[in-house]
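Pasting as-is:
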Amino acid sequence: MIKTEMLKKNYEFRFVLTKGKYYSGEYIEAFFIKNNLNKNKIGIAISKKQAKAVKRNYLKRLIKESYRLNEKVTGVGNSIVFLVKKRANIDEISFEKIQKDVVKILAEIGQV
């Protein structure tokens, strides 16, 4: 199992969002950059305007779980920020749709 930590600080998110490479799925977008550590770091962000706290936290758990199931694809030493697209309809998002997007994004990242 790969060691994965969460990005927590604003400056960590900003660094990945400004310097990272952009990948997109149907409902999720991701920014990726190498971090030169022996662990992966991921961050998940959903706008307050998109949903209330319960739904935002539910979507974060879904993204985190789908990442956990597919983290072997990317290797070690990466920082990834997942964002839910603003135009995405939050109510129609399911685990299968998120899983499909995360697999697509991680496959593209794994080829880099």
